[in-house]
Amino acid sequence: MSLRFFVDQCISNYVIQTLRNAGHEVFRLRDHISPDSSDLTVISKAMELNCILVSLDGDFTDIVIYPPEKYMGIISLQIKNHPEVTPQVMERLNKYLSSHQEMNHYKGKLLIIEAHRIRIRGYS
Protein backbone atom coordinates (compact mmCIF):
# COMPACT_ATOMS: atom_id res chain seq x y z
CA MET A 1 0.00 0.00 0.00
CA SER A 2 1.37 3.39 -0.88
CA LEU A 3 1.30 6.32 1.49
CA ARG A 4 -0.08 9.76 0.58
CA PHE A 5 2.03 12.84 1.20
CA PHE A 6 1.35 16.55 0.87
CA VAL A 7 4.70 18.31 0.53
CA ASP A 8 5.18 21.88 1.66
CA GLN A 9 6.60 24.52 -0.68
CA CYS A 10 10.05 24.21 0.89
CA ILE A 11 10.46 20.52 -0.08
CA SER A 12 12.99 19.84 -2.84
CA ASN A 13 12.35 17.89 -6.02
CA TYR A 14 14.91 15.35 -4.74
CA VAL A 15 12.68 14.57 -1.74
CA ILE A 16 9.56 14.42 -3.90
CA GLN A 17 11.19 12.08 -6.41
CA THR A 18 12.61 9.89 -3.64
CA LEU A 19 9.12 9.43 -2.19
CA ARG A 20 7.62 8.76 -5.61
CA ASN A 21 10.37 6.28 -6.48
CA ALA A 22 9.43 4.39 -3.32
CA GLY A 23 5.90 4.08 -4.71
CA HIS A 24 4.16 6.76 -2.67
CA GLU A 25 1.62 9.29 -3.85
CA VAL A 26 2.94 12.85 -3.52
CA PHE A 27 0.91 16.05 -3.83
CA ARG A 28 2.82 19.31 -4.17
CA LEU A 29 1.54 22.38 -2.37
CA ARG A 30 1.88 24.60 -5.43
CA ASP A 31 -0.52 22.36 -7.36
CA HIS A 32 -3.29 22.89 -4.79
CA ILE A 33 -2.86 26.20 -2.96
CA SER A 34 -0.85 29.39 -3.18
CA PRO A 35 2.86 29.02 -2.29
CA ASP A 36 2.53 31.84 0.24
CA SER A 37 -0.37 30.19 2.10
CA SER A 38 -0.38 30.27 5.89
CA ASP A 39 0.77 27.22 7.84
CA LEU A 40 -2.83 26.64 8.93
CA THR A 41 -3.97 26.58 5.29
CA VAL A 42 -1.13 24.18 4.44
CA ILE A 43 -1.97 21.65 7.13
CA SER A 44 -5.69 22.01 6.44
CA LYS A 45 -5.09 21.15 2.77
CA ALA A 46 -3.07 18.10 3.82
CA MET A 47 -6.04 16.97 5.93
CA GLU A 48 -8.49 17.66 3.10
CA LEU A 49 -6.40 15.50 0.76
CA ASN A 50 -6.08 12.79 3.44
CA CYS A 51 -2.30 13.12 3.38
CA ILE A 52 0.65 13.13 5.73
CA LEU A 53 2.27 16.57 5.69
CA VAL A 54 6.00 16.70 4.87
CA SER A 55 7.77 19.96 5.65
CA LEU A 56 11.04 21.60 6.57
CA ASP A 57 9.13 24.32 8.42
CA GLY A 58 9.97 24.04 12.11
CA ASP A 59 6.63 25.61 13.04
CA PHE A 60 4.96 22.24 12.43
CA THR A 61 7.07 20.67 15.20
CA ASP A 62 5.36 22.86 17.78
CA ILE A 63 2.94 20.37 19.34
CA VAL A 64 1.09 23.13 21.20
CA ILE A 65 0.16 24.96 18.00
CA TYR A 66 -0.14 21.77 15.86
CA PRO A 67 -1.11 18.94 18.24
CA PRO A 68 -0.29 15.72 16.35
CA GLU A 69 -3.54 14.02 17.41
CA LYS A 70 -5.49 16.45 15.21
CA TYR A 71 -3.74 15.49 11.97
CA MET A 72 -3.12 12.60 9.58
CA GLY A 73 0.57 12.83 10.42
CA ILE A 74 3.35 15.38 10.18
CA ILE A 75 6.86 14.60 9.00
CA SER A 76 9.45 17.27 9.70
CA LEU A 77 12.68 16.84 7.76
CA GLN A 78 15.55 18.30 9.79
CA ILE A 79 17.82 19.57 7.06
CA LYS A 80 18.12 23.18 8.22
CA ASN A 81 20.81 24.94 6.19
CA HIS A 82 22.64 21.72 5.32
CA PRO A 83 21.18 20.29 2.10
CA GLU A 84 24.09 17.85 1.95
CA VAL A 85 22.36 15.74 4.65
CA THR A 86 19.22 15.30 2.52
CA PRO A 87 20.24 11.86 1.15
CA GLN A 88 20.88 10.52 4.68
CA VAL A 89 17.62 11.99 5.99
CA MET A 90 15.69 10.44 3.11
CA GLU A 91 17.41 7.08 3.54
CA ARG A 92 16.39 7.05 7.21
CA LEU A 93 12.82 8.11 6.32
CA ASN A 94 12.49 5.51 3.56
CA LYS A 95 13.58 2.73 5.92
CA TYR A 96 10.93 3.82 8.38
CA LEU A 97 8.23 4.14 5.71
CA SER A 98 8.97 0.68 4.35
CA SER A 99 8.44 -0.76 7.84
CA HIS A 100 5.24 1.21 8.44
CA GLN A 101 3.16 1.18 5.26
CA GLU A 102 -0.30 1.93 6.63
CA MET A 103 -1.66 5.49 6.68
CA ASN A 104 -3.24 4.87 10.09
CA HIS A 105 0.22 4.36 11.61
CA TYR A 106 1.01 8.06 11.05
CA LYS A 107 -2.29 9.51 12.24
CA GLY A 108 -1.73 11.56 15.37
CA LYS A 109 2.05 11.47 15.11
CA LEU A 110 4.83 13.95 14.50
CA LEU A 111 7.97 12.38 13.07
CA ILE A 112 11.11 14.46 13.28
CA ILE A 113 13.58 12.96 10.81
CA GLU A 114 17.27 13.67 11.28
CA ALA A 115 20.27 12.12 9.52
CA HIS A 116 21.14 10.06 12.61
CA ARG A 117 17.75 9.43 14.25
CA ILE A 118 13.96 9.68 14.16
CA ARG A 119 12.02 11.21 17.03
CA ILE A 120 8.31 10.46 17.29
CA ARG A 121 5.83 12.53 19.24
CA GLY A 122 2.15 11.87 19.52
CA TYR A 123 -0.23 9.01 20.02
CA SER A 124 -0.54 5.48 18.68
Distance between the termini: 19 Å
Give helix and strand order, one letter per element, not per position: EHEHEEHHEE
Estimated share of beta-strand residues: 15-25%
Strand order of the largest sheet: 2-1-3-4-5-6
Task: Please count the beta strands (DSSP E, at least 2 residues each).
Answer: 6
Total domain modules = 1
Mean pLDDT: 95
Oligomer: single chain
Give the name of the CATH architecture: 3-Layer(aba) Sandwich
Tell me the major beta sheet.
6 strands, mixed
CATH class bucket: Alpha Beta
The helicity comes to 25-40%
* DSSP helical segment count: 4
Name the shape in a single word. Answer: globular
Low-confidence stretches: none
Class inferred from helices and paired strands: alpha/beta
For the structure shown, list the relevant keywords.
Rossmann fold, globular, 6-stranded mixed beta sheet, 6 strands, alpha/beta, 4 helices, 124 residues
Describe the model.
The chain has a single domain, classed as Rossmann fold (3-Layer(aba) Sandwich). It has four helices and six strands, in the order βαβαββααββ. By secondary structure, the protein is of the alpha/beta class. The protein starts with a strand and ends with a strand. It has a six-stranded mixed β-sheet with strand order 2-1-3-4-5-6, with helices on both faces.
